[in-house]
Amino acid sequence: MQKNNTFKLEFVALMAALMSTVALSIDALLPALPQIGHTLGVTNPHDNQLLITMIFLGLGFGQLIFGPLSDSFGRKPIVFIGFAVFIIASIICVTTKSLEIMIVGRILQGIGLSSPRSLSISMIRDEYSGDYMAKILSIVVMFFILIPVIAPTLGQFLLNFFNWESIFYVNLIFGVLIMIWFWLLQPETLPKEKQIKFTPHLFIDGIKEFFKHKEAVAFTLVSGFITGSFMVYLSTSQQIFQEQYNLSDMFPYIFASLAISIGLATFLNSRFVVKYGMMRIAYASTIAYATISILYVVLFWSGQNPSIFILLSFFALQFFAVGFLFGNLRALAMQPLGHIAGIGAAINGFISTVMAVPIANYIGGFVKISVLPLFIGFSIFGILSLLVFIILNQKTKLVPI
Fold first, then answer.
1. What is the pLDDT of residue 1?
2. CA gap 24, 19 in Å, rounded
3. Which residues are within 8 A (CB) of 293 and not within 5 positions of it... i.e. 6 or more apart?
4. Taking the CB of residue 362, how many other CB atoms lie within 10 A of it?
5. Which residue ranges of the chain lie beneath pLDDT 70?
6. How do residues 40-66 score in pLDDT, each as one tens digit?
């Protein structure tokens, strides 16, 4: 198992770029949801959220296909196959006039993008391990966060001067440029001697191996809880700021400022994780995540929305905790899975994402005239995450409680 503690800027930047194709496909579309819904004849604004949450469903299932294949045939060719699926799905999205077909296209987009998203994590695990892997993942996420900072503004710009279809075309152009960069400059990270022979039992064997590791299962569950509650924000943010607060013009800037909060946390995590350890930081961040949301629920139980400044303060604190969680939870889950990094990342991503989608769809249905249901969701899944840490500690004594 390779244990590399050498920082490689181009590798980190390229991994962040691969992951950012997903963020751009999600976040750039947020300002356009009402226009897309109008074009497709959507009458219930809640249905527009499906264009965000359903891409995550594709991301979850696609990893189960591409992860095991990458363990057998290498990372690079599988990334290209996934991007080909993304191209086909994007064409479906810009040519349909039906919400149902658009949702199918978004699921297929997610399936295609699951390849660069999950395999970037597999490639990081191929190169690094331990707390230094968590450091690299934090830096990758920090670069990756730049996309949510600019994506809604880019989407709004394209919407103002062109149309919502142009957002899909820009996503395609961006993806092609990243694929060319990846093709020219990134060597294969899984040498042939470490590739697993492809057999019909590869997936089943991988699942059995994954579930042998209690830490991997536990931190995958926590990832699902945190991702699901955060996905509610992603799918309802346009509705909250544009409809509940009447801040349509400010939406891209508000979204960007909150993304900066996550980026700052991931930057600080990259500086502190080797010193303090990913386990300790993840546990403390989970406590903060639960505490902040419970405080909001207690203060605003009436359901009446606070001023925008108070709301943004709570969001910023909540997402600051999220920034410490995302990279560390993935690293903790992947740490014991270096020998099956491809299928390990796939199962981790599949379980956490498939957990997250119904969570987001269910809670998102209550976010109509108040932000309170969103913070109730944060509270519930923050507490559940904390319980997983406590139970894991009783069984393994790995968590510093």
1. 40
2. 9
3. 318, 375, 376, 378, 379, 382
4. 13
5. 1-5, 145, 338, 341-342, 395-401
6. 887 777 778 788 888 888 888 888 888
Is residue 145 a contact partner of residue 262, using CB atoms and an 8 Å limit? Answer: yes
CA dihedral 371, 373, 378, 379 (to 10 degrees): 120
- Say if CB 289 and CB 225 are below 8 A apart: no
How many whole angstroms separate alpha carbon 247 and alpha carbon 113? 31
Q: How large is the angle between the packed helices 50-73 and 202-210, nearest 10 degrees?
A: 110
> pLDDT tens digits for 264-314?
888 888 888 878 888 889 999 999 999 999 999 999 999 899 999 999 999
Residue-level pLDDT at 166: 92
Contact (CB, 8 A) for 113 and 82:
yes
Which pLDDT score, from 0 to 100, does residue 4 have? 57
- What was the pLDDT predicted at 2? 44
Tally the C-alpha atoms within 13 A of residue 390's C-alpha that lie toward its C-beta.
Answer: 8
Written in H, E and C, the secondary structure of 184-249 is HHCCCCCCHHHCCCCCCCHHHHHHHHHCCCHHHHHHHHHHHHHHHHHHHHHHHHHHHHHHHCCCCC
Per-residue CA distances from 98 to 35, 94, 104, 105, 311 (Å): 13, 11, 10, 11, 35
